Amino acid sequence: MKIGIIGLGTVGFGVVEILTEQKERLEKQIGEEVVIKYGCSLEEVSLPENVIYTQDFHDVLNDDEVDVVVELIGGITIAKTIIIEALKKGKSVVTANKALIAHYGEEIFKEASLHHAKIYYEASVGGGIPVVVPAKEDLVANEILKIEGILNGTTNFILTLMETDNLDFDEALTIADGLGFVEADASLDLDGIDAAHKIYILAMNAFHSFFDFDKIQANGIRQVTKKDMDYAKKLGYRIKLIAQAKKLENGIGIDVSPTLISLKDMVANVNQAYNVVEITCNYLENVLFYGKGAGRYVTASAVVSDIIKTHQKDMWEHDYTHVNCIYPITFSKYYIRSHRALDIDYETYFSQDKDHIYITNEIELDELTHQLEGETYNLFKVRG
Ligand code: HSE
Questions:
Q1: For residue 26, how many C-alpha atoms fall within 13 Å in the half-sphere facing its CB?
Q2: Which residue ranges make up each domain of the chain?
Q3: What is the pLDDT of residue 317?
Q4: What's the CA gap between 30 and 44, in Å, rounded?
Q5: For 168-214, how does the pLDDT look when each residue is reduced to its tens digit (9 = 90+)?
Q6: Mean pLDDT in residue range 69-92
Q7: Using CA atoms, how far apart are residues 95 and 306, in angstroms rounded to an integer?
Q8: Do domains 2-120 and 132-292+321-327 have the same CATH topology?
Q9: Which overall architecture, per CATH, does domain 2-120 show?
Q10: What integer pLDDT is reported at residue 316 of this predicted model?
Q11: 85-116: string of b/e by CB count within 10 Å (b at 16+)?
């Protein structure tokens, strides 16, 4: 496999790093060499030895040896030209470009079929969380009825900060911006456009339909005030920016909108810059995908997985190695309830009724049980 990466920003560099660090394992996975032949960017950057640096994307597209083009420049103009040209030459394309797929997916996929080329775009929604393939393939036994989720990490971070730190929208936005969370065009995040790009892509795959992106009504979080959040909480809700798509009898219902979600709902407890996608279908009912929706390695992880998929041999051959060394995982914190005070290292302790309750520091179970010899106690592992 010979790869040309066009766009060497945060994610592009993450892709170079993962492909370099994981080279041996990935090559074993597909049974052939994984070579980054080109790194293309307008700004001069330092790349690993043997990677050709170019400022001209035509060098990548015109090289017949390159069979995978990775488009990471973003935007919907030059990126579109690059992708269409690569597909026309029969190259596989991997992209994280949500805006491009949402606006021009129909045209791009037609071009891909025409030239028997493939385009992969898992990284365009939910960063590294696998959601596009599940919506497209893994739930095929089901009819997908609805998809909803928190698809924009920046606005989720702002809403979380407003609540936890008692800030108004502008104050929280300034902090999010300072941390580099907000897109160069802030409107994409704040007005729900980025979330609309992403729900378009999920709906397109879940409902096997193209439609006009411009028909999606997107409302962002600018109208959400601390006061609304407090009232919502009093009513048992939290305000989240929810992107939603569902099949209607006469079409597809789709929008992005600040929404009160019951505090009992798991989606209401997805905070900070995390994303969540909930798919409702007729047999499986509800399934949730949760994780980080942005960041260098997070997004690069999905891009690299797509790159490998372009040359994936049969995953169902199960040519795994048999491992004999199987052990229980015993290095942990432990919860202990005893009727006597114990002489152990602990992180938390209290006594109630006749019970002495401990959460230990992390310790090997053998060592702990040795310290507890002769005592009677109840013990469970503690996570976190
Ligand atoms: N601005 C986007 C977000 C980046 O906050 O989710 C990842 O797509």
A1: 22
A2: 2-120, 132-292+321-327, 331-382
A3: 83
A4: 31
A5: 999 999 999 999 999 999 999 999 999 999 999 999 999 999 999 99
A6: 97
A7: 9
A8: no
A9: 3-Layer(aba) Sandwich (3.40)
A10: 83
A11: bbbebebbbbbbbbbbbbbbbeebbebbeeee
Query: Which residue is closest in CA terms to ligand 1's atom 8?
Result: 294
DSSP H helices, the chain, are 10-21, 23-30, 57-61, 78-88, 98-114, 132-133, 153-164, 169-178, 186-190, 193-206, 226-234, 296-309, 365-371
Amino acid letter at 375? E
CATH (residue range 132-292+321-327)? 3.30.360.10
- Mutation probe of ligand 1 site: the residue of 101, 121, 181 with most atoms within 8 A of C-beta: 181
Task: Tell me the mean pLDDT in the region 265-283.
Answer: 97
Average pLDDT rounded to a whole number, residues 229-254: 96
Supply the mean pLDDT for the chain.
Answer: 96
Measured CA to CA, the distance from residue 227 to residue 88 in angstroms comes to 54
Residue 356's pLDDT is 98
Q: Is 202 in the pocket of ligand 1 (CB under 6 A)?
A: no
Pocket of ligand 1 contains residue 194 by CB under 6 Å = yes
pTM: 0.93
Residues with catalytic roles: 198
Output DSSP code: residue 339: S
- Per residue in 28-59, pLDDT (tens digit) is 999 999 999 999 999 988 999 999 999 999 99
Any idea what the Cα angle at residue 175 is, between residues 15 and 196, rounded to 5°? Answer: 60
